[in-house]
Input
Amino acid sequence: MNQNLSSYWIFYTVANAGNISRAAKELYISQPAISKSIQKLEENLGCKLFSRSSRGVLLTEEGQLLYGHVKEAFETLNHGEDKLKRSIELGVGHLQIGVSATLCKYMLLPYLKEFIRRNPHISISINCQSTNETLRLLDENKIDIGLIGKPENLKNIHFYYLDNIEDIFVANPDYLTNLKKRGIPENAILGNSTLMLLDKNNMTRQYIDDYLQNNHITVADSIDISNMDLLIDFAKIGVGVACVIKSFVSQELQDGSLVQIPLGIPIHQREVGFAYKENIKPSKSLQTFIDFFNNYKPEENT
Output
């Protein structure tokens, strides 16, 4: 924009008033100052914006074209100011959270439910993707906070521990019975079954791959599945053996629709928590959320 914003405001006010003297009263400046501003604007734009009449001034064709855009611009500014004022008055804010679909359903929702109840004027955006992708978005400042499995490297990241999760292998009882009939012992189930795992971009999958490799377990057949819910559902109908988070299948283990497969060497538990950048000042919305989860225990309200 080559012109001073005040010049456009004067132009806009004169166009609305249709009279320079009336516009001068509205703007609390002299008529000569308005005339000079309009003249300079016309010179810079290379066209006449007003034509004079006995009743005042009228927009020329070029002036009408400019007025349409200027009117829209100032209306947008006014709308922005109104939204900002309401935001300040109501405590309105926006919070962007990154989380995997699995952790979102089983761990984040209890926090969000109560947080939204207490802070209805803070809007929430959820970016569902793997922990690796969440960490990338945090690093690029594209999200405010993430719910993640704790990575080995926490460079520039503050990690707030929430809970431990335990990975286990489960299967339908009938599937295990069929393996037993084929003469496959318990300690050889993983290497002689269809193993269902999260896709390779998932941090959980990388963790399980390391476990299998470190324990010299060779997988004969495997299926990559995009989310934990499908893993659980496929295991329940007998597609194969699924690697799942134990707390997420507590009901299925209790009712017997899934059976945990014993492991000679258990899989080490992992830490899960909220992560946010250390080297930036939190927004008001993020600070409100940080203060909330530092003091809130979901089990107290279940």
